[in-house]
Design a protein that fits this description.
Helix content is 15%, strand content 46%. The protein has two helices and eight strands, in the order ααββββββββ. Strands 1, 2, 3, 4, 5, 6, 7 and 8 form an eight-stranded parallel sheet that branches.
Length: 170
């Protein structure tokens, strides 16, 4: 009986002490003309916690990954001042490994098929890296290690089954 009384007391105390506060936001009369106004409005409602972005464009690091299939894997370890990389995998058991340290990195990698592998390792260069590779088929492998002015702008298109391309540059 005492236990039931304690449970009832705890429930009542919890019910009386817990409450929720609902605030209705009326945004119909707000003019959103500039980025600074947008920031100020969002900041006033507590929805924005960082400082506004200046209109000066800064270099960014972007990576887009799209995977359709099973057991696809991407490992991207890049260090750069700016990058714009797009990685696409359509199929099963595909693998992309990128280890790149360069001032700028850009490129697109497409794998269409099953059990394809791309390895691109560039540990340090002062060149801006452009990586473009496309694999269409099954059990295809591209190994690209290092970089120089000749191998930097290669566009690799690999088609078929059970083929390997290895490029080692100094």
């Amino acid at each position: 009986m005492k236990n039931l009384l304690y449970i009832v007391i705890v429930v009542l105390i919890t019910c009386f002490t817990s409450y929720s506060q609902v605030e209705e936001l009326n945004l119909s009369n707000i003019n959103l003309n500039t980025e600074q106004e947008n920031f100020n409005i969002l900041n006033n409602f507590g929805l924005y916690q960082i400082s506004p972005i200046n209109s000066v464009t800064t270099e960014t690091n972007n990576i887009l990954i799209q995977q359709i299939g099973n057991y696809n894997r991407i490992s991207s370890q890049t260090q750069s001042q700016s990058s714009d990389i797009e990685l696409f995998q359509f199929g099963d058991n595909n693998e992309i490994d990128l280890s790149i340290n360069a001032p700028k990195i850009s490129g697109k990698v497409l794998q269409n098929g099953n059990s394809n592998t791309i390895l691109n390792s560039i540990y340090y260069t002062n060149l801006n890296v452009n990586l473009n590779a496309q694999q269409k088929g099954n059990n295809l492998t591209i190994n690209k290690i290092g970089i120089n002015s000749l191998s930097n702008n290669l566009q690799i298109n690999q088609q078929g089954n059970f083929k390997t391309i290895t490029i080692i540059s100094n």
